[in-house]
Amino acid sequence: SGIIGRHPEISNFVLATGFSGHGMMHAAATGSGVSDLIAYGEYRSVDLSAFRYERIAGNQPIEEHVY
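^ that's the sequence the OP posted. Answer follows.
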């Protein structure tokens, strides 16, 4: 799954990568969330915190939910 958010060691580096063949499906939400993160320092329109870089280092899977 994708990796979205600030790099933990490089403060001015924002990641939005790793979607494999599904990038086009996630492009609008990713762009909206990343622009919020850059402009405001937080997600406002779409909470993409589940895709943070640190989850890869911590081997934390993303739990999927259907509401």
